[in-house]
Amino acid sequence: MTAAERPARPSSRARRAHKPKPPLDVLEARIGHAFADRALLERALTHMSRADERVGSYQRMEFLGDRVLGLAVADLLYAALPDADEGELSRRLAGLVRRETCAAVAAAWEVGPHLVLGQGEVLGGGRRNATILADVCEAILGAIFLDAGYPAARTVVEGAFRPAEVTTAPRGRDAKSALQEWAMGRGLPIPAYAVVERAGPDHAPVFRIAVTVEGVPAGEGVGPSKRLAEQEAARAVLEREGIARAAGEDAPDSGEGA
User: Fold this and answer.
1) Of 183, 102, 101, 176, nearest in space to 137 by CA
2) Contact call for residues 128 and 202 (beta carbons, < 8 A)
3) Sheet holding 206-213, edge to edge
4) Taking the mean position of all CA atoms in its chain, how far away is CA 213?
5) Per annotation, catalytic residue among 110, 121, 138, 253
6) Domain span holding position 212
7) CATH number, residue 109
8) How far is CA 101 from the centre of its chain?
9) Which helix (H) or strand (E) holds 180?
10) Are 43 and 59 in contact (CB under 8 A)?
């Protein structure tokens, strides 16, 4: 058989698109909930590009899960921070339920390989798309609520989002902006960020990033994206140097990724 007669070998991109999905019990173990009705989990993982109808995708569960997440985080924060006022509780809630945080949780669960996507979404990198990951995280919480009720969903939220962890700089605060404002207010150069290490598989990378500010020891942060790792690096410097309050801890959430 000549080279021209041999069938073309599928591209690496096409091979990845047809890679078998890992078993769902692996995902259930990472989430911390074994579904009595696994069809709920399957729907929570189904993007509208593969659903027969709009209601067959994760969209309705995402709507429900968004409300479940908000209630669970508020419930847990209220119990964990008995001395916090409404403003502090609101800031922490905003940081924990934001899309970047939900995407990071989904990445930690390694949801990507389990997603049911249309071919276009697969080839377009949908398994690593932060918007899809955030939506699916909320859909999974909605599915858990439907499968086993609020207590089960609250337990998963507590383990994945860790609302009880108290830090000097609230998670809802844009740490990068706070650090930059602090540096510029003292006539220092803008903080510089550099990737120290990239680990993990392509569908669930882990970045370690260092931030340097003139006259201050470098800080490091780890996250499933460069943006989130940079925020964690900035937050590490704010907390270690006691800069958080000087940078304006009570400022409203900027809406940037934490």
Assistant:
1) 102
2) yes
3) 192-199, 206-213, 216-223
4) 27
5) 138
6) 175-241
7) 1.10.1520.10
8) 4
9) helix 175-185
10) no
Read off the pLDDT of residues 111-159 as tens digits, 9 standing for 90 and up. 989 998 888 778 888 888 888 889 999 999 999 999 999 999 999 999 9
CA distance 33 to 52: 27
Cα–Cα dist 50/42, whole Å: 12
Give the chain's domain count.
Answer: 2
Q: Is residue 250 part of a domain?
A: no
Helix (H, G, I), strand (E, B) or coil at 220: strand
Shared-domain flag, residues 154 and 183: no
Assign 72 to helix, strand or coil.
helix
Q: What is the DSSP letter of 198?
A: E
Tokens, residue 7: 């069938």
User: Sorting pLDDT into bands at 50, 70 and 90, what band is 244?
Assistant: low
Q: Is 115 left (phi over 0), alpha (psi -120 to 50) or beta?
A: beta
Check 62, 66, 121, 174 and give the catalytic one.
66
CA atoms within 13 A on the CB side of 59: 11
Q: Enter the pTM of the model.
A: 0.61
CB count, 10 Å around CB of 67? 13
Regarding whether 69 and 16 lie in a shared domain, the answer is yes
Reported as a single tens digit per residue, the pLDDT across 68-89 is 999 999 999 999 999 888 888 8
**CB 198 within 8 Å of CB 78:** no
Is 66 an annotated catalytic residue?
yes
